[in-house]
Amino acid sequence: MEHLTKSRISEYEQCEKRFWLSLHRPELAAVASGSLFSGGNQVGGLARALLPDGIAVTAIDAAAAVEQTAELVQAHPERPIFEAAFRHERVLVRADVLLPEEGGWRMIEVKSSGSVKAYQLADLATQVWAAQGAGLPLAGAAIRHVDTSFTYPGGGEYAGLFKDAEVHGELGPLIAGRADLVREAWGLALAGEPAREPGPHCSDPYECPFAAYCLQNAPAQPDYPVTLLPGVTGKKIAAQLSAAGYLDLRDVPAGAIEPPAQVRIHEATRSGIPYHARAAFAAAVGAWSFPRYYLDFETIAHVVPPWAGTRPYQAVPFQFSCHVEEAGGALTHAGFLDLSGDDPSRACAEALIDCIGDEGAIITYNVAFERGCITGLAARFPDLSDALMARAERLVDALPLVRAHYYHRDMRGSYSIKAVLPVVAPHLSYSDLEGVRDGQGAQIAYLEATAPETAPQRRDQLQAQLSSYCGLDTLAMVELVRALSA
């Protein structure tokens, strides 16, 4: 290995073992999921397109790229340079953008995130350290990230999509430590495999592709570890219990945990007897008027908004499922799904108004999400706003009722509907679904289904999978409410 790269140094900063394995045992890495869900390439392309006088370093070979960069810096000091390459102390970096400024160049690192992240500063510090070490006069450095307040006007006009965060002044301590960091990384690269226990670093800031390898030799975990206690309070209690020597929640003595919500989890886990305040749950649900509409949306949040009137990362609903329950128990289903690739918002809003009548509770599981979808549609379509907002006012939430009145130890600290369903309605199962089994899977399926190159037969298959998944979400709510009320 002739040099380290920014990515290698980033791996080292996350975990020494990941760094070593990526160098010496790359075959142990898990295969990454498909790239349909990533907007990084599109963001980078747009950042270049917005600088039409820019010129790119096209050489792939490291030495050739460094040489070409030096030539462009000298020959075109007035033009932006893309993918400029610099080598210093056996570290090779390539800068996304160099902008000419008075007194030197301004280095720009382009990111698809909506704000600046700590690890991005570390990456930029590596870039600046190497470029300055190679002799480039730098007048500034910035993270160019997506401006989430930008509203796409349509017509391919993306000026204003990015916002620059000038961070040169923040990089000093990081840059000062780069040389030592690089020496340490090289030392480890030439040594044997380091020991490192799995922990939070396995997914922060990136999911580690070697996690399965590391976990195979990790000590066996108890079936009900203290770490399953949910929320900030639960994690604090779990840390205290771990420090006291408790690993299995079943071994923690009665009375050692005080917050009522955590006590319920502890007692149900120790005894194996579910906590179920049946009468209280039934009384709360009894206040929901009929007909009852069990509603769930699926959304897509594009990094680069493709539809006029939408923003980066805005959750745009492309699908909903609605099970309608009458007072006598009769159950019907309606839904909406648009895989045309066009903006689904207007059609979704109209279908929702047609599906949900003027009376009756609209039941959700985590109401903030569904309310956000409806109010977002109302904001975009003023002529539909009154009807949509009238429905938003009727939303009720089953999730806090489950949290307050039910817990089975096999939920393992989670109140998600996918954790509750197997213990209250085992005849329904997300694992029986084909293809799409969770929200992220639904978004990936949507992107594939709307891609121009997707064959009609495959699109039909994805449509069926999406319909089954979203339909199960609302049927699961029906069964959950019925089971916990009976």
TL;DR?
This protein has 486 residues and is α/β, with parallel strands linked by helices. It has 18 helices and 14 strands. Helix 12 (345-355) crosses helix 14.
What would you note in describing this structure?
The protein is of the alpha/beta class. The chain has helices at 6-14, 16-24, 40-49, 62-75, 118-133, 172-176, 178-189, 211-216, 231-243, 260-271, 278-286, 345-355, 367-380, 382-392, 399-405, 417-424, 439-450, 456-485, and strands at 4-5, 55-56, 81-88, 91-101, 104-110, 138-146, 162-166, 275-276, 292-300, 316-325, 331-337, 362-364, 395-397, 406-407. Strands 1, 2, 3, 4, 5, 6 and 7 form a 7-stranded mixed β-sheet that branches. A 5-stranded mixed β-sheet has the order 11-10-9-12-13, sandwiched between helices. A two-stranded antiparallel sheet has the order 8-14. The radius of gyration is 27 Å and the shape is globular. Residues 293-416 form the DUF2779 domain. InterPro entries: DUF2779. This is DUF2779 domain-containing protein.
Features:
486 residues, alpha/beta, Lambda Exonuclease, Chain A, Nucleotidyltransferase, domain 5, 3 domains, seven-stranded mixed sheet, five-stranded mixed sheet, 18 helices, 14 strands, 43% helix, globular
Structural class, by secondary structure, is alpha/beta
The CATH H-level homologous superfamily of the largest domain: Ribonuclease H-like superfamily/Ribonuclease H
Please state the CA-atom Rg, rounded to the nearest Å: 27 Å
CATH architecture of the largest domain: 2-Layer Sandwich
> What is the molecular shape?
globular
Share of residues in helices: 40-55%
Summarize the biggest pleated sheet: 7 strands, mixed
Average of pLDDT: 96
First-last Cα distance = 66 Å
